[in-house]
């Protein structure tokens, strides 16, 4: 029988009633002839409670013990989901990560999936079981200890199972009904996309759209897993949600698929840096060691051997960045005149695979912002994305203006 | 290094603060030179919450899924306890049942321990680890699924580890400070025992003293594990609590060690049963199948081929017993004139290994009850126990009178 993977997030299994509703969706797919692998998260709130206990017990905790404690949330949901399915007379059983076994690296707290042997679960499907309920977010290390995959790791678990079992599709049930052209809370004209390419989804995920974990999209792209995002709170027909798929499965596409934003950015400028080979390493090495996530980097034209260098990072990492750069200056590793921080900026991006073949997207974007008197502070581009840093107070205005300019409210 | 097993029950690990207090006790034993195996229960309330979810999901649940859900409570405590010990700079790590592995039968929900390989944990002790924190109450079946040992199974886990590792002692930390001559809530003269024999403890446990699970005492007796019951809420010196040990380790002992009671009993009498071979099996077979726990059984002298037969059982099983016996009567398996239930009785017992060598214990017990005008309805005796069934309203009176008669307030 064809295999379907269905993943239910924390809000979709928050109570016994919601688990029952999720189980009914599973039952419909079983009735439609699928063998189903269900991946479950912890009941919402549970993981936070467990993480809270660990942090209170030990601020610099042993990640192996953290994983042992935190993985228990998914274990509970998996058992309850299997019991609920059995009550509906659907042959089902639960698997914990170590029982599959979902083999991972030893990087506790952020382990990478290495192998998912399929014989154990497939044997049970062949023996008549219809649903395998698997605790998401967790696996087992080569040392035999429980590992977790990091926040949102249940999405990654789901995609990895879909790839390993050659599933027809991987349905991610969540509390939104799909991927939108932009955040509907900012632009009421935001439109749900029926389809989006892996590449675009990856850019949107990394730009802060919280629908899917970046790693799960990467994995889906690598193994060409058809990924569908849909709501567990609405009745869905076969066309519900958003299908994340390969570019060639998108018949008609617009030049720009969506507008993303990231509100809490900061712009840091090093004034008058000595422009010598190795200077970038001397600056960004210490920042990386200090745990600063540098995003955009721009270097001005050098004059008389000195240059200005600007980068962006999350606003809550500014103090850390300043400390790291002052230390580098004191040890003589970097020489700069001044360090200026602008903590009132936001990033706005347009994303679309159509950009590859269409010129003029950047020009249209810049003109649209100019028409609204929004000043652009930094620009970076990739093959399918243009991002700008602007004053935070103009962020909503810019998102709305770009959404209008690229006519995203209209279907392709 | 000598090994000590320390077990902490649910109230002793109910909060992070209490886990810290328990960890300090462990720290003291480590400082005293022991390698310690800590067995933990779930934080109190957690197991009930999980069991409640399972029951609400599925009244006739799959016991394998029940075990997967319910075992998660101990998993959390084990991780938190290991982290707490690490914070105190004591080398520690957690083990779940399947990691040890604690091998059990496949009787989910009430599995029997079959084997505890020691090489895994011993290897870590040899490498410098000082504390192994083990999730109590759980193991792994031959099929690789999580099993649980039944309520109170963490006591049994602790004793089994003490036996497997040849521990010097197994300390059970609980919310009482030891085993008493009787329930202090009934007799203010109740005295804590410094030592009690396995046999006596076993009788007291099976008679309803809730300090230790019966199976854990059986196991301790079989493997001669020195078992100490003590409070996790008081400062204990080396002589604290009650040591449960072999008879020969008790230097001076009284004839009677304690008075036990069981409040909610019922007395059932089958009037005029045909007295023929196999009649007991015909009566007690159906009762056992109906899940009735028959305790005392008395058969009167037969007259003209008919006899009266009396037995006791928990009062909440009376309806079940009546139904089973009526059915047996209707099918012709049993022939009796009438079935009379007295649901207002209680059982009071005196227990002591000294009875073996001292005559007159029964006579003294009966006289003491007669002096208080307490009528005895049923009597049963074993080598070290005499139990009587009396009207429930006299229960407290009887316990106090017997405690006085055998001078249990005085040390041996």
TrEMBL record, chains A, B:
Binding locations of substrate: 47, 74
Cytoplasm keyword on record: no
Top class in the EC scheme: transferase
Keyword Amino-acid biosynthesis: yes
Domain (ACT) ranges: 268-353
EC number(s) recorded for this UniProt protein: 2.7.2.4
Pathway in which this enzyme or protein is active: Amino-acid biosynthesis; L-methionine biosynthesis via de novo pathway; L-homoserine from L-aspartate: step 1/3; Amino-acid biosynthesis; L-lysine biosynthesis via DAP pathway; (S)-tetrahydrodipicolinate from L-aspartate: step 1/4; Amino-acid biosynthesis; L-threonine biosynthesis; L-threonine from L-aspartate: step 1/5
One annotated GO molecular function: ATP binding
Swiss-Prot/TrEMBL catalytic activity: L-aspartate + ATP = 4-phospho-L-aspartate + ADP
Domain of life: Bacteria
Entry keyword set: Amino-acid biosynthesis, ATP-binding, Kinase, Lysine biosynthesis, Nucleotide-binding, Transferase
Chain residues that bind ATP: 7-10, 174-175, 180, 185, 210-211
A biological process term (GO) from this entry: homoserine biosynthetic process
One Gene Ontology term, aspect cellular component: cytosol
Record-stated family: Belongs to the aspartokinase family.
Protein name: Aspartokinase
Species whose genome carries this gene: Tranquillimonas rosea
Organism ancestry: Bacteria, Pseudomonadati, Pseudomonadota, Alphaproteobacteria, Rhodobacterales
């Amino acid at each position: 029988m064809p295999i379907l993977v269905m993943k239910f997030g924390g809000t979709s299994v928050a109570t016994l009633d919601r688990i029952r509703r999720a189980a009914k969706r599973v039952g419909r797919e079983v009735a439609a002839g699928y063998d189903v692998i269900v991946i479950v998260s912890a009941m919402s709130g549970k993981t936070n409670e467990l993480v809270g206990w660990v942090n209170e017990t030990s601020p610099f905790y042993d990640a192996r013990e953290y994983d042992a404690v935190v993985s228990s949330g998914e274990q509970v949901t998996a058992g309850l989901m299997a019991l609920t399915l059995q009550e509906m007379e659907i042959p089902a059983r639960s698997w914990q990560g170590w029982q599959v076994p979902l083999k991972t690296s030893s990087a506790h707290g952020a382990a990478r999936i290495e192998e998912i042997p399929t014989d154990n679960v497939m044997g049970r499907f062949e023996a008549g079981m219809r649903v395998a309920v698997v605790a998401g977010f967790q696996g087992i290390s080569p040392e035999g200890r429980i590992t977790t995959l990091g926040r949102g790791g249940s999405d990654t678990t789901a995609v990895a199972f879909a790839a390993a079992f050659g599933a027809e599709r991987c349905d991610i049930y969540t509390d939104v009904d799909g991927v939108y052209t932009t955040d509907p809370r900012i632009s009421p004209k935001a439109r749900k996309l029926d389809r989006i390419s892996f590449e675009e989804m990856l850019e949107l995920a990394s730009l802060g759209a919280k629908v899917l974990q970046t790693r799960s999209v990467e994995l889906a792209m690598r193994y060409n897993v058809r990924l569908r995002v849909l709501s567990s709170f609405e009745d869905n027909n076969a066309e519900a949600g958003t299908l994340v798929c390969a570019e060639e499965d998108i018949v008609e596409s617009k030049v720009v698929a969506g507008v993303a934003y990231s509100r809490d950015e900061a712009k840091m400028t090093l004034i008058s840096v000595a422009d010598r080979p190795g200077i970038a390493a001397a600056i960004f090495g210490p920042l990386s060691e200090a745990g600063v996530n540098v995003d955009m980097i721009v270097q001005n034209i050098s004059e008389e051997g000195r240059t200005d260098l600007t980068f962006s990072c999350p606003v809550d990492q500014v103090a850390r960045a300043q400390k790291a750069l002052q230390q580098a200056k004191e040890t003589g590793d970097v020489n700069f005149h001044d360090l200026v921080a602008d903590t009132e900026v936001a990033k706005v991006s347009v994303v679309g695979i159509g950009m590859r073949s269409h010129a003029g997207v950047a020009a249209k974007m810049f003109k649209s912002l100019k028409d609204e008197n929004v000043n652009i502070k930094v620009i970076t581009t990739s093959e399918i994305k243009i991002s700008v840093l602007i004053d935070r107070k103009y962020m909503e205005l810019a998102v709305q203006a770009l959404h209008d300019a690229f006519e995203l409210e209209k279907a392709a």
